[in-house]
């Protein structure tokens, strides 16, 4: 009898050990809270491709149902403000979130919690935050940037809290204003849900992440005025100096040597100054962008024209007039061919995006 009893107990314990995780998972599933996320972007500004950051002002609404029994059956909804929100969330389900790609804490401008008789709860928050992004735009100033805002669950791992993005809009229809500020314009938007591991809860749990993507492109007119026209002007002036400066026919060479060297040297220094002044308008990447390639191409052309001019002047001033004349005339074709090759190379970056 004792052996049978021991066998029954042993079998029961074995079954519980095997099926225990299943029961635990079923319990977790019953505690799961799908949280709907609505987001309105009020402002996207201070986009810096050199630092990889931008500023956003947004309105967020988190909605959930199932843990608001204290108000079920009440005649009307109730809205909580200030410390009353924290007190309620401390005793009930708290869908705490943080902005995963923020450089610091978000600045909360307004906050309210509305409780409905049917068990629904809606947490509204308007906030400002400085966000980071990847400056992956090899065809800059063409192409687009993927700005994004990542809302991650802070306290409840999956499946205890699962985000469900519902609405993602820009601005309010009643107010006419540009949401994306500066020399950028909106090209599109989308939202998605992902999951990520966190050191919280022992580092083994996955947390829900709602990602809101903002696709923006740079204004071409601004880029043309600041970058393209100055760079192409430097390139053309360098080629004009090399082509139309007086050919030396005597050993003394006169003052033309000073102009030949001084002109190219001035263009080279201007190129360095332009690159320095455009620091905030050029992406800081570990690879070449289209603008970087254009700076490299123009720089090589100017340096080559400077070195070539010094050598040709030296040839003329040492009395080798015939050789100097040949070099002078052939240099025009060489420079045109080199400029064409560089322009084809630079144009190829427009296809990389």
TrEMBL record:
The keyword Signal belongs to this UniProt entry's keyword annotation: yes
Chief place of localization: membrane
Record-level GO cellular component terms: membrane
Signal sequence segment: 1-24
Keyword Signal: yes
Residues annotated as transmembrane: 227-245, 257-278, 290-313, 333-352
Cellular localisation: Membrane
UniProt-recorded Gene Ontology molecular function terms: extracellular ligand-gated monoatomic ion channel activity
Membrane-related topology note: Multi-pass membrane protein
InterPro entries: Neur_chan_lig-bd_sf, Neuro-gated_channel_TM_sf, Neuro_actylchol_rec
Name the record gives this protein: Putative membrane protein
